[in-house]
Design goal:
Length: 207
């Protein structure tokens, strides 16, 4: 009994009493308003929580970005950050629902994590985790950046024939992605985190 208590206490110490999954639905009805793609678009997550993006409708990505470059994978604008990138997840109208898990490791405390959907970014299909309400970097500002830089009125580079072709050529795909090595890193960390809890729980039950 004494050992059981010790195990539970150490579990709590390592993982936090309230570590939890925070769900985000990817695939709100974007027909008339692309900002509906992530619900909620503003997420609050504590250290050791896992943000779980649940792709329920349509064909979208969740891809980490920097505040100043909302519609580009963060690694393309800041090589020191790998970032997460789901690649396109086509739900086939809700019959192929998948998730992407993004663990909020303790070093990410106090940091805002911005992200976007490749297919709706220019219309405001973006979101953020742990947005600092006292900062000038707000969700509304991030949406404005996305529309300004990638919306229909945005200046496209002359070298590309059209914005849609540009999007496709830069877009991640489920099989090949420029940042493919990074795509699964978050999922792997989440799985490892979960697996490392199991032996402790089993040990506790065995007693
Ligand atoms: C999405 O919204 C549009 C109008 O805003 C509506 O016509 C359409 O039926 C909706 N689609 C779904 C799947 O709810
Ligand atoms: C789109 O939805 C957001 C909430 O996600 C809302 O704040 C905004 O006013 C809507 N825009 C339009 C044009 O309906
Ligand atoms: C994702 O959402 C779908 C549809 O709402 C639901 O059936 C499924 O259980 C969810 N997945 C997870 C991991 O929560
Ligand atoms: C998802 O969207 C991307 C970019 O628009 C496109 O290249 C891809 O073919 C789409 N996937 C499906 C299954 O339609
Ligand atoms: C790149 O990301 C690192 C880590 O978040 C940050 O310290 C650095 O300021 C970023 N660089 C630029 C140019 O934004
Ligand atoms: C999904 O639903 C949309 C709208 O109802 C339809 O146009 C499309 O063909 C459907 N796609 C598939 C793969 O069933
Ligand atoms: C986050 O901010 C709090 C309050 O300023 C501080 O105590 C904590 O050490 C910070 N965490 C990290 C990882 O920087
Ligand atoms: C947004 O525009 C930038 C610069 O033209 C481009 O590199 C990026 O691929 C675009 N993003 C999307 C999602 O289309
Ligand atoms: C934001 O500012 C308010 C008032 O100045 C303060 O009470 C609050 O703790 C601050 N929030 C953060 C996240 O720093
Ligand atoms: C694009 O083409 C226009 C007209 O040919 C030119 O004025 C402009 O400088 C070009 N922009 C870039 C980024 O090359």
């Amino acid at each position: 009994m004494r050992f059981f208590t010790t195990v539970v206490v150490s579990l709590t110490a390592v993982y936090g009493a309230s570590a939890k999954n925070v769900f985000v639905q990817v695939g709100g009805n974007t027909t008339s308003n692309a900002t509906m793609v992530f619900q909620p678009a503003q997420i609050i997550a504590a250290p050791n929580d896992i943000v779980v993006f649940n792709f329920t409708q349509g064909n979208h990505t969740v891809t980490q970005a920097a505040f100043g470059s909302p519609c580009q994978p963060i690694h393309d604008t800041n090589v020191t950050v790998n970032g997460f990138n789901s690649g396109f997840r086509d739900t086939v109208n809700g019959t192929a629902v998948t998730i992407l898990s993004v663990p909020i490791t303790p070093d990410l405390q106090n940091q805002t994590i911005w992200f976007f959907d490749f297919n709706t970014c220019g219309q405001g299909g973006v979101g953020g985790i742990n947005i600092d309400d006292n900062s000038t970097a707000t969700l509304d500002g991030f949406i404005r950046n996305a529309v300004r830089l990638n919306g229909t009125d945005a200046q496209q580079p002359n070298s590309t024939a059209s914005s849609s072709i540009s999007t496709a050529s830069h877009a991640p795909s489920p099989t090949t992605s420029p940042s493919g090595d990074n795509n699964n890193a978050a999922e792997h960390r989440a799985i490892l985190g979960t697996l490392s809890v199991i032996p402790l729980i089993v040990a506790a039950i065995a007693l």
